[in-house]
Design goal:
The chain has 462 residues and is an all-beta fold. The chain contains no helices and 30 strands.
């Protein structure tokens, strides 16, 4: 616990606090109003940078009450109190001193420095897990950079990279506006992955400047491999001063022979910039107990009945086609089905339990799907019970391989589920007629599922 110096400040407007003493009170003695400076040695405080929490302690004294003012708006009269701040920065805590005669006309002033912003949302996969292939591995033991200006001239001043307490801290003064004009490579990482397995990856990134399209590419690191095969290749937006977990799940592995490579690209970023990368995790998906949230891009959704809803027809077809099977892939009877006012209701019957043994589709919806455009899709699914797995596929009516989305291993909670995926592209190209397929293989018998509010729109980011 540290004791810090104080500054005497003039009295500010404060709310009135009632006296806590039960003693007889004959009136205030203005000559005995306490002076805050007399109590400086009675205050200690400490800051836990791991939790972004400060703890203040005022040594208890008969007849004296501390009055803490936090950031000019929050008040506390405890002898001990703690305060949490999510974002990094400098914060003020003032301590006034009160006795039965009144409040001190000065305060003891403290500045609390919070070093890092705590992130909201998904915090990544378990960095301390023994199944983390990057545990105890210095991923940047062999690193190189190639930063260029807008004319593709290599910059004389290349970035610096330092490792501090498990963080990789990159600083660059300048970077060109285009992709591949801000390359950072971590070379020859001695980690083995295998073909035929799927992997999950995550890293936490913090930047003091906006990175509108930070690229992360994980690939073969062997010399002469031309960065192929590739485990992951994705672009991410990183906002200034907001830690974010960048991740990928169900990544198709390849035989790396203990030679992996990271390629990051910061082309188009604001500069100068300081970027922190930490908590690198790569784990076999089958050994990872943490389920990553579905990735979506924030979009402006049109209404179900809007002309901008290209998929409005899915709400009015009124019928579904079924192919349900047993464990031996022999077709069984259709589930119970009804339709009313835009809501499709299915009651699950016996099925084999595997993917594609509970196929249920809405067919023949005319939509002009164009090659090279992005789309967003959304629907509401209400389930009477939790469903451990289902598959969603939206594709061309007469070509299942030309899909907008094909996603298995989805789950339903009991009650209402809003299912949405954004910034999707047709796999093969244009189409004029589409179908929306759900597969409920494995859904418990008797589970009632209601499908409604289908939206398919041109991508409309916020």
């Amino acid at each position: 616990m540290k004791t810090f110096k104080y500054i005497i400040a003039s009295l500010v407007a404060l709310p009135l606090f009632s006296a806590c003493s039960a003693d007889k009170f004959d009136g205030a003695d203005l000559s005995n109003i306490p002076a805050a400076s007399d109590y400086a040695d009675m205050i200690t405080y400490s800051v836990d940078q791991n939790t972004n929490t400060a703890t203040f302690v005022f040594e208890e004294t008969d007849g004296i009450i501390p009055v803490w003012v936090v950031d000019g708006s929050e008040y506390n009269t405890g002898f001990t109190f703690t305060k949490y701040w999510r974002k990094k920065g400098d914060y003020t805590v003032k301590c006034y001193v009160k006795n039965r005669n009144g409040m001190s006309d000065g305060s003891l002033d403290y500045t609390v420095n919070i070093e890092k912003t705590k992130m909201n949302g998904f915090a990544g996969f378990d960095v301390e897990s023994d199944d983390n292939l990057f545990k105890n591995v210095d991923v940047a033991n062999n690193w190189t950079t190639w930063f260029a200006d807008g004319g593709w001239n290599e910059l004389a001043q290349q970035p610096t990279l330092n490792k501090v307490n498990g963080e990789y801290r990159l600083h660059f003064d300048e970077v060109g506006p285009d992709r591949w004009q801000g390359q950072l490579a971590f070379n020859h990482i001695p980690v083995n992955i295998e073909a035929g397995k799927k992997y999950d990856f995550s890293v936490i990134v913090t930047s003091n400047k906006k990175l509108p399209g930070m690229k992360i590419k994980i690939c073969n690191g062997a010399d002469g491999s031309s960065d192929s095969p590739v485990l992951m290749d994705e672009d991410f937006e990183v906002l200034a001063d907001e830690p974010i977990c960048l991740y990928g799940s169900l990544l198709e592995g390849f035989a790396s022979n203990k030679d992996l490579k990271f390629v990051f690209d910061f082309g188009g970023s604001e500069s100068p910039a300081d970027v922190i990368m930490e908590n690198f995790v790569l784990v076999d998906h089958d050994k990872n107990p943490i389920v990553a949230p579905e990735k979506t891009v924030a979009v402006n959704w049109c209404a179900v009945d809007s002309p901008d809803n290209l998929g409005a027809g899915f709400n009015t077809v009124g019928s579904m086609a079924f192919w349900w099977a047993n464990a031996d892939w022999q077709q069984v009877g259709d589930p119970t089905f009804s339709y009313s006012d835009g809501v499709y209701t299915i009651v699950a019957t016996e099925n084999g339990g595997a993917e594609w043994q509970g196929q249920s589709s809405i067919n023949n919806v005319k939509i002009d799907m164009q090659e090279g455009l992005y789309y967003d899709i959304k629907c509401k699914v209400v389930s009477s019970a939790a469903v451990g797995r289902y598959t969603l596929k939206v594709c061309q009516q007469n070509d299942d391989d030309n899909f907008l989305l094909a996603k298995g291993d989805l789950k339903l909670n009991e009650g209402e589920n809003i299912v949405q995926f954004t910034k999707l592209e047709m796999k093969k190209g244009a189409a004029s007629e589409m179908k929306w397929i759900f597969d409920f293989g494995g859904t418990p018998v008797g589970t009632e599922i209601k499908l409604s509010d289908f939206i398919l729109q041109k991508h409309n980011p916020k």
